[in-house]
Write a structure and sequence with these properties.
The protein is mostly helical. It has one domain: Amino acid/polyamine transporter I (Up-down Bundle). The chain has 22 helices and no strands. Helix 6 packs antiparallel against helix 7. It comes from Streptomyces yokosukanensis. This is Proline-specific permease.
Length: 478
């Protein structure tokens, strides 16, 4: 490629980015720095930490802390890879857009629909968790709570993106404040010794009750599926790129908060809780945060924490409804989805896509009605495998983008991933290891059974779509 062609290509990319920054996709640039930062911080604080960690502690004991720390490093590598792509071209529906450009139209089709399915399934997961939290106060069937929450959150998503961002800001603020407060309370118990747990609280609980690996290293590895699920949604900032006021400044700052988010909200919180209360006191299906306050004799604290984790679940479900509408619109704009998904309301909301997704989330109500005790475990494994597909695509696209940029075929990103492409390859290998472990775990294996079926459905759908509309197989940069 000649230098003049490279200059033309660079000019075209800059023009496309300029169009995006002005809202060229039809969305309103209503999400400011304060909102994006809190969406990024709160996006990783949800059901996986508040509810799923109970099962992880019972399986791995204190070594679950190490699992979160190692997985957190991999998550940071994924986010920096995403950041490099976002600074190259910040667009809504970024994952499927990058897949079309760097892998092919079929990859974009698969990624868009799979990420949409991920958030539908995640919405079911979160509303399931929220319904479970309600039983702490009220003796009502889980499916009733799930039905009410689904309709309430659907209504919340019919507002403007600016108000959505404001709601998510305060949702996240509640979660962050609660975890920081919990850490401070645990620190006070360890140092001053107040509450019922004051006499027995000790950091030695991390290694005295059967050792740091009470069930062996193998059991710790088997928790990685649940650990990775806890981190799903950190990539949500990529979806908000099309509605950020200043994506080039806001998104890098949000991505660079990942290390301390994981260090404080996951590693720090678990260290404190497991130091105050021995890991043997925690059980699957019960939030370790609520259980910890109960063991401390702080009944009011347990109720407050239960409210916070309820907020966390509803926040994640709310984000899911936001994402699904945007992904369906991105597919429709690329002729890979029904055209009516392209329409926006006057406030910039993709009403058709959000409505369709919310209707499917009602499946969660039926799951809660049929299997109230197993609902969470059934949906969490499939959410994990579908969500990790987006991470795999991000890493592959970043590797291919960096290769082209280094050869002068594309402009260099202003936010380059450190150590890439080697760090991206390492992250890919780690994800594949987790998938293998899911195949070994009989509880998580169901998701691997569903994945080929979903792949076959997408393959046939794309073949039919391509024959009916050849434009579906053509990539056009937006």
């Amino acid at each position: 490629m000649t230098s003049s062609q490279v200059d033309q290509l660079r000019d075209g990319n800059e023009a496309a980015r300029a169009e995006d920054s002005e809202g060229g996709e039809g969305y309103q640039r209503g999400l400011g720095s304060r909102q994006i930062q809190m969406i990024a911080i709160g996006g990783a604080i949800g059901t996986g930490l508040f509810l799923g960690a109970g099962k992880g502690i019972s399986k791995a004991g204190p070594s679950l802390i190490l699992a979160y720390a190692i997985a957190g490093v991999v998550i940071f590598l994924i986010m920096r890879a995403l950041g490099e792509l976002l600074m190259y071209r910040p667009v809504s529906g970024s994952f499927s857009e990058y897949a079309r450009e760097f892998i092919g139209p079929f990859a974009g089709f698969v990624t868009g629909w799979t990420y949409w399915l991920f958030w539908v399934v995640t919405g079911i997961t979160e509303v399931t968790a929220a319904a479970a939290y309600m039983t702490y106060w009220f003796d009502i069937p889980q499916w009733v709570s799930a039905l009410v929450f689904t309709f309430v959150l659907y209504g919340a998503n019919l507002i403007s993106v600016k108000l959505f961002g404001e709601l998510e800001f305060w949702f996240s603020m509640v979660k962050v404040t609660a975890i920081v407060g919990m850490i401070l309370i645990c620190a006070g118990i360890l140092t001053i010794g107040f509450s019922d747990a004051g006499d027995t609280a000790s950091v030695s609980h991390l290694w005295d009750d059967g050792g740091f690996f009470p069930h062996g290293v193998g059991s710790t590895l088997m928790t990685l599926q649940m650990v990775m699920f806890a981190f799903l949604a950190v990539e949500l900032v990529g979806v908000t790129a099309g509605e950020s006021k200043d994506p080039k400044k806001v998104l890098p700052k949000a991505i660079n908060t990942v290390p301390w988010r994981i260090a404080v909200f996951y590693v720090g919180a678990l260290i404190m809780i497991l130091s105050v209360v021995p890991w043997t006191n925690f059980h699957p299906g019960v939030s370790p945060f609520v259980a910890a306050f109960q063991k401390m004799g702080l009944a009011a604290g347990a109720g407050i924490v239960n409210f916070v984790v309820l907020t966390a679940a509803l926040s994640s479900c709310n984000s899911g409804m936001y994402s699904t509408g945007r992904m369906l619109r991105d597919l429709a704009l690329n002729n890979q989805g029904p055209k009516f998904f392209t329409k926006l309301t006057r406030s910039g909301t993709p009403l058709a896509g959000t409505t369709f997704s919310a209707a499917l989330m009602l499946v969660g109500v039926w799951i809660n009605y049929q299997w109230p005790g197993k609902a969470f475990d059934y949906v969490v494994s499939f959410a994990t495998i579908s969500g990790m597909w987006a991470w795999i695509v991000i890493l592959i696209c970043q590797i291919r983008y960096r290769s082209k940029a280094n050869r002068g075929l594309l402009p260099q990103s202003e936010f380059r991933a450190p150590g890439a492409p080697y760090t991206s390859v390492f992250a890919l290998l780690f994800i594949f290891m987790v998938i293998v472990l899911m195949g070994i775990d009989k509880d998580a294996r169901v998701s691997l059974y569903c994945a080929p079926l979903w792949g076959a459905i997408l393959g046939v759908s794309y073949w039919v779509l391509k024959r009916r509309n050849p434009e579906a197989a053509a990539f056009r940069k937006r």
